[in-house]
Design a protein that fits this description.
41 strands, alpha/beta, about 30% strand, 8-stranded mixed β-sheet
Amino acid sequence: MDVSRNTAETAGSAASSPARVAVIGCGYWGKNLVRNFAQLGALEGLVDAHAPTVEDLRAKHGGRALSFEAALADPGIQAVAIAAPTVAHFSLAKQALEAGKHVFVEKPLSLAVSEAEQLCVIAERLDRRLMVGHLLQYHSVFLALKALVREGRLGRLQYVYSNRLNLGKIRREEDILWSFAPHDLSMILSLIGSEPDRVECSGGYFLHQQVADVTTTHMAFPGGEQAHVFVSWLHPFKEQKLVVVGSDAMAVFDDGEVWDRKLLLYPHRVEWRDNLPVPSKAEAEPITVPQAEPLRQECQHFLDCIASGATPRTDGREGVRVLRVLARASTALTEARNQAPKGPADHAKPVAPLQARVVGTHQGVKIHESAYVDAGVTIGEGTSIWHFSHILGAVTIGKKCSIGQNVVIGPKVTIGDSVKLQNNVSVYEGVTLEDGVFCGPSCVFTNVMNPRAEIVRKSEYRTTLVKRGTTIGANATIVCGHTLGAYSFIAAGAVVTADVPAFALMAGVPAKRIGWMSRAGGRLGPDLICPISGARYRQTSPESIEEIE
């Protein structure tokens, strides 16, 4: 059977000159967005703290290396596609919308329903397209399955279940429910056409006491339909399967199968004989679906909606609906865990809900429930502190900072305004970060030159000063006792063992200066002119430059 006529569901072909797009976050998944927008003739900018990644992608696909601020300020860029860590989705999307850009955000739209709703309001007020990357809603096989349901080929919809199982990718910033389930929930809500009136969830915590590795979510809908989603990153093999059961037939979308057998229609029926249900089985019928890359379809849909003004299939409101179910499932998961019988290893000890330990009041500050903030901490308005982070005593954090997951700060540390610390960063006593400093994931600060586990050397702490606007790449190490000059740029994996001049681009082990970077984050050529802002610089000595007023 061929249902190709039902699988397009696009907003029409894109304009001859598509909107120009900047991709924010060019790593694990962002690189695929870069490739697709480039092939669609829409790629304009690449924004990522890891310069080598950007340069490699530019060599393959073109585009300009930009800072986030430069991308928002560029009138030639009409849209951004955000593939940054989930914790940053709300902040980045909000800034982009307020800058007048159309915004594509990878799932989930945010970690909080209230934040996602706020993004929808902003997008609607400014008449900008806001789209969420629920990729499988752009898979031509799912669209064919949806067409079967809509045309009544399965009869009355009764039950839907989805399995998304694999060994990895294991995370610590979010549990399996938030990492794996959004795609499945998006598909199920789309098929049934309503939100559930009952959500139950249970799970297992095998690798970490607070992060679920396996969850099963059960949902009941107002029309009588039921569904469940089983997700796990502790599974011996990969399985991505959606099963839809109707009164007249059943269908299976198995993304692990070869293309011609990804969608099978089973005309099974249940007949009643002598007042007993008797299954009547039939041979599976493959459904022919034109082959296409889902991500290409998704990116094209975003461009089409920008060109036509149409509402994206997975717009912000659809993203909010998925978030509401996720939030309800997450609450049910916590309740189920606290009510579950305890095994011998628990010694009958009750499990308290995960809550923040926040001593004192911090007005205008967002602190995730799993974070800890000790007494004597000062935090500026507009700052966010995310999952599993710990702020020790006598720490001062400025305004509008973003403190990522699993970050430890202090004690006795001062951090300026608009500082961004990515996941798994520890800022120890003796380190000072001035305004606008960016610390990439898992970068390292030390405060003792020759540590030994059995010898206490607190009296030997050496100070480290990171001046305004400095960028420190992922997994870089800053050896204590040195000063990083303003707007210097430390490449990923570099080991800094000496003072760093202002605007210096440092790379290697030990780090050496390999060039100069502008205030805007553009690498300077021999003419010392910023390729992003056009600002000019001049050399004042062999190892120093300054910006020309």
